[in-house]
Amino acid sequence: MSRYYVNKFLFQVDGDPELLAAYKADPAALMDRWERDYGTRLGTNHTIERTTWLSFTDQERQALLEHDYVTLFELGVHFFLCLTIFIAIYDDEYRERSGPLSFQREYAAKLSHWAGKDYPTVAL
Amino acid sequence: MAHLSAVLATTHHPFYLKATTAPPEERMPQADEWKAKVEAYRETLTAAEPELLVMVGSDHFHQFFADNYPTFLIGKQPRYDATFYNEEREFGIPKYLLEGHEDLSGFMFQGLLDRGFDFSISHELKIDHSIICPIITTRPAADLPIVPIYTNIFAPPLPSPKRFWDLGRAIREIIDEYPSDSRIAAVGSGHLSLELGGPRQFGETGPDPAFDRAAIDWLASGDIEAILANVTHESMAGVGNATHGFLDLILMMGIAGPIEADYVDELDLFHTREMYMTWYPNGDPR
């Protein structure tokens, strides 16, 4: 498991409008591109120095491919990164269809089985 | 020596500007009440006639990430850009260019090192909404030089509540010793109970109104003993996964000292309780 690497993906993609649009339109293509280039950039965006050993587990890659924020929550991915990027991807269409905060409330409902329990830690 | 003219501790709600400037048909029912409370709060800073601002906040994975996330950091720059692309996108917060105050930044940095707070320092810091939100609410002209201090309330493991209090006390000593006749205000933002990206997010109230009540009362009465007896990382997580922003409110009370607040107001919003608190440790100017 590399929660750090998942967080790095969310951090970079959420902070770049071009990557974000690509992640919304075609997650598989963007993830392939990200893993070959951005994911190996040392720190968050160093284009010369590279990190050679980080990678996703199959479960992490699948959750990111499917925009599966419930699994990401359960893996201990940082709550702020996860919420922010999926608001960016889904909020407009949910608001149009079902009103303000409808995406955020569905997100909460899908995690309702965690209410009253200790959440998976986001500590690294 | 410098004059600490006010200490402000406030929640930061990134949607304030959007909510209170939306066209009438999109305006939330509480927008006018919210605006009135914020404008009344702003008067508590204006009355103190500050000449520069020590600002306390926390980077929300905008500039800093887990490859190198500072526990405590101070900026020392002539100017600061503010507001990141994804904050403009999500919150509708505009970009700013704020003046810095390198001399007080340097004096503060050295004073913190001398007191055992081994800070990181940045000479290319960009400010995020934890500092811009209180600028928008308490000093919208954005016309005063700032000294920004960042703490880690965001990427655990975090320092203890006691450490935040002690840091506030140290910042106070350094402001009091600063060889200048400036009037300095300290303005910091954080949270009461808050949930983001979890099952309790965006409810009808904040995730734990009972905690919010107790927290406001502890801060308003300067009761650091009760805070240190009741507030732990575990207890904060129990009332909402993003409640750790409360640590920066403890820090602000540390700057003021264990004294009663001179101004206390609050507002229940749709998913959080907002708090607006001011101390005048050297006398109420109003």
Features:
heterodimer; A: mainly alpha; Protocatechuate 4,5-dioxygenase, Chain A; two-stranded antiparallel ribbon; 2 strands; globular; B: 286 residues; alpha/beta; two-stranded antiparallel sheet; 10 strands
Protein architecture, described:
With 124 residues, chain A is mainly alpha-helical. Chain A has a single domain, classed as Protocatechuate 4,5-dioxygenase, Chain A. Chain A has helices at residues 3-14, 17-25, 27-36, 58-65, 69-74, 79-98, 102-110, and strands spanning 41-42, 46-50. In chain A, β1 (41-42) and β2 form a beta hairpin. Chain B is of the alpha/beta class. Chain B has a single domain (3-279), classed as Protocatechuate 4,5-dioxygenase, Chain B. Helix content of chain B is 37%, strand content 20%. Chain B is built from ten helices and ten strands. In chain B, the strands form two sheets. An eight-stranded mixed beta sheet of chain B has the order 6-3-7-2-8-1-10-9, with helices on both faces. The two termini of chain B are 22 Å apart. The model of chain B has no long low-confidence stretch (mean pLDDT 97). Chain A binds chain B through residues 4, 7-8, 11, 14-17, 42-44, 69, 73, 78-84, 87-88, 101, 104-105, 107-109, 111-115, 118-119, 121-124, and chain B through 60-62, 65-68, 84-86, 89-90, 154-157, 196-203, 237, 241-242, 270.
Quick description:
Chain A is mainly α and 124 residues long. Chain A has 7 helices and 2 strands, in the order αααββαααα. Chain A has a single domain, classed as Orthogonal Bundle (Protocatechuate 4,5-dioxygenase, Chain A), CATH 1.10.700.
